[in-house]
Known about the structure:
- By secondary structure, the chain is of the alpha/beta class.
- It folds into three domains: 12-71, 434 Repressor (Amino-terminal Domain); 76-177 and 310-333, Response regulator (Rossmann fold), CATH 3.40.50.2300; 179-307 and 338-357, 3-Layer(aba) Sandwich (Rossmann fold).
- It is built from 14 helices and 13 strands.
- It has helices spanning 19-26, 30-37, 45-57, 64-71, 91-106, 118-122, 125-131, 152-156, 179-192, 208-223, 240-251, 263-275, 309-324, 346-349, and strands at 76-82, 110-116, 137-141, 160-163, 174-177, 198-202, 233-235, 257-260, 285-287, 304-306, 332-334, 337-340, 356-357.
- The strands form three sheets. It has a six-stranded parallel beta sheet with strand order 2-1-3-4-5-11. Strands 7-6-8-9 form a four-stranded parallel beta sheet, sandwiched between helices.
- Helix 8 (152-156) links the parallel strand 3 (137-141) and strand 4 (160-163).
- Helix 11 (240-251) crosses helix 12 (263-275).
- The termini are far apart.
- Residues 1-14 have low confidence and may be disordered.
Amino acid sequence: MNNRQISNGKGKNGTFVTIKDIANYVGVSTATVSMVLSGSPKISDETSQKVLEAIKIFNYRPSIAARSLVLNRTGVISLVVPQIENVFMQPFFSIALNGVYDACVENGFRLQIEVASFQFMKRKRYLRLFRERAIDGMIYIGSTASDTYLKELEKEEFPFIFAGSYLKKSSLPFVIGDNIKGGRIATAHLIKLGRKRIAHIIGNFSVPSAVDRFEGYKSELEKHGLNFDPHLVSIGNFSHEGGYEAMKKILKFKPDAVFVGNDIMAEGALEAIKEAGLKIPEDISVCGMDDLPLARKTRPALTTVRYDIYKIAYRAMQNLLNKIRGKEIKSEVLSVKLVIRDSCGAKKKGIFTRSSHA
């Protein structure tokens, strides 16, 4: 067979090109072609290049079913999300979904959604999916401290990873942003602006990443000799309404700044501050975290800490796929940085840090 006999993915007599045709053309086994398609490091660069060139020349499109049989894989990744109403209407989860999906598609995998419901836990679906070989791997976004049932996966050594979250006292791998550093640099920035009574709105104490942001805030206060006042801390449950209500409670104790655990709650906090007749940033400096698209649209524009959700989700999926391919993977903590806008007052004072401003 040669490339004149193959056109638009078809060989002799109009039949579609098969993995065997590619193998014969290059002069390798079908197993070698399969390993190249799966990204196996066992095949030399020279052989891989020849196979990939043949695939491109002949416009070869591997059958999903045939490929699954040859590789003993399903080609399916399970994405697990919390049982939250309209979960993908929330910016954090919708951005994370894009990152996971893009990495899946680029590597020839399909994505199926699972909800971490009571039935998901009770029926141990997280184990059954693996044991029944319904999926090749699982990625979990938005876990909480109560998800200890997932520790069962440690014993099984199934391909699993957390994205944007993690489970304390667990060896399960994860990819997150540096939440503790995020809390520290936000608080340090507000202190640099001369603020003394710095409040904090935490998403929820049951979410490890939220607690890490709180711990970063608290440790930075201590570092600068500022007293920690529990009256200046309130729970916002990651929502606009929660941020609004939390800020109203905090205002009774006369804060001059607030570090809010995410941008959605910060938007609610801005509303509560303005409703109380106070000026931002003259009376109260505000800093959020995540740098969601809405941070540029608030009035005033929100100073925040950039937590690259898309990159975290994309990297987590890449690591999961490497695990499926038999490679060793490690947990990763990605960097975060301060983004200075108008809600903190730094621009008016001409105070900037090494981090970016927009």
